[in-house]
Design a protein that fits this description.
The protein is mostly helical. The protein contains 7 helices and no strands. The protein folds into 2 domains: 30 residues, no CATH class; 69 residues, Up-down Bundle (AhpD-like), CATH 1.20.1290.10.
């Protein structure tokens, strides 16, 4: 598996505002640990939220994070398809295109010293 760094925008944010990024990371981890949902479910929910927000960067990031924990491309595509009747065909197709781009990039594998949110 090839290593893919976190997105440039997030890296830049981390460099410009290290203390804020550290607290953001801590908050994200706390949110993930604060309920009964298993990691796979949490990752698919985060992907669904990104799809609903029509956020290309978040869709790609959460797709790659899902791959990193073993969620299959078929499961990811199903999550996108579920948005069809809620967000509409054009937004669902956009998300599907972003998913395919992220699938080609592969999973996020943080570099040494980087934490995954």
């Amino acid at each position: 598996m090839r290593k893919i760094r976190l997105p440039f925008s997030y890296q830049r944010f981390k460099e410009e505002f290290p203390e804020i990024e550290k607290e953001y990371d801590r908050l994200a981890k706390k949110c993930h640990q604060s309920g009964p949902l298993k990691e796979k479910t949490r990752r698919l929910i985060k992907l669904g939220i990104a799809i609903g927000a029509n956020s290309e960067g978040a869709v790609k990031s959460h797709t790659r994070r899902a791959l990193a924990i073993g969620i299959t491309p078929r499961e990811i595509r199903h999550a996108v398809l579920l948005g069809l009747t809620t967000i509409g065909f054009p937004k669902m197709i956009s998300a599907l295109n972003w998913i395919h781009e992220a699938l080609e990039e592969g999973p996020i594998t943080p570099q040494k010293g980087e934490d995954e949110i």
